[in-house]
Amino acid sequence: MNTEKQYNGSFRGPGEDMLSPKRPPHTKRKAPNPMLLRVLRAAMLCVGGLILVLGLVVSVLPLFRIQNVESEGNSYYTTAQLMEAAEIGQGDEVFGVDLNAALKNIFDRCPYVEKCSVGISSPISVKITVQEKQGVMYAAVGGEYVTFEYVAKDASFRVLEKRADTEGMEPFLRVELPQVTSAEVGKKIRFASSDSDLSYTKVLTDALRENGIMERVASVDFSSISNLSYRLENGCTVKLGTMNDLDKKLKKAEALLAENADATVVDVQNPNSPTVQ
Fold it and tell me: Does residue 8 or residue 35 have the better pLDDT?
């Protein structure tokens, strides 16, 4: 019988731990790139500086408060009215003002503003610049007073505002309109005659301005295109009739008024045979 035993394990010499794995040979650590270190240090300094600056800005901005609000281009609206509409007040944080919201508020609440801009003019000042609508008119409609503007695109009148009285309407031209069936804010005025062409109203008001008459006009009667007239601030009524020979009629009326300062009615419906009362 063969009693010789076989050993399949690996042999280790004296002093070696049978349980310890072989250690890999020692490798030398690579030295860091000095250029990369300098770049990283510079980046850390920049980030730290930026954080410091942002912290200072955040802490200082609330110190800038509105002390002055100036407006430009406004004649109908006061600076105080524009501030109230924009929801901007003295003492508010300058850099906390939502300029887009302020601009929208002005357009929503000030119907006679055509164009507008709102900006920060200094750390303590806000400036509101407006361009107000020109040629605004008003008329009595259904027991109310309606302001409106002429829209050249479709020769119509668009309602701007409704009021119970004429307070504040002094800068606007008062007119008499053809029979109105509907006048809603933001919409076109509707007339009983669906084919009403209002372009003649624009032609007449432009002619009054071009002849230097408009600043003396108190009201214009547009109610009938065949029976047009206007009343001057001194109470004199000028009857024009139709739009024919309009420029000739206006010049004739001015000449007669220069000769008859106390006239109450000047009729130039026939400019070749005018009458004065």
Answer: 35
- Could you tell me the CA-to-CA distances from 84 to 89, 90, 171 in Å, in that order? 8, 11, 21
Q: Report whether 110 contacts 85 (CB < 8 A).
A: yes
- Whether residue 270 sits in one domain with residue 166: yes
Question: Are the CB atoms for 269 and 241 separated by under 8 Å?
Answer: yes
CATH of the domain at 166: 3.40.50
How many whole angstroms separate alpha carbon 128 and alpha carbon 70? Answer: 6
Give the count of beta carbons closer than 10 Å to the beta carbon of residue 36: 9
128 and 158 share one domain: no
User: What is the number of structural domains in the chain?
Assistant: 2
Can you give the pTM of this predicted structure?
0.73
Same structural domain, 155 and 253: yes
For the record, the structure tokens of 189 come out as 């005025």
pLDDT tens-digit readout, 219-277: 999 999 999 999 999 999 999 999 999 999 999 999 999 999 999 999 999 999 999 99
> Which domain CATH number covers 79?
3.10.20.310
84, 93 Cβ separation under 8 angstroms: no
Provide the token pair at 20: 């310890």
Say if residue 102's pLDDT is above 60. Answer: yes
Q: Are 85 and 103 in contact (CB under 8 A)?
A: no
- Specify whether 223 is located in the same domain as 146: yes
Task: Please tell me the predicted confidence (pLDDT) of residue 215.
Answer: 94
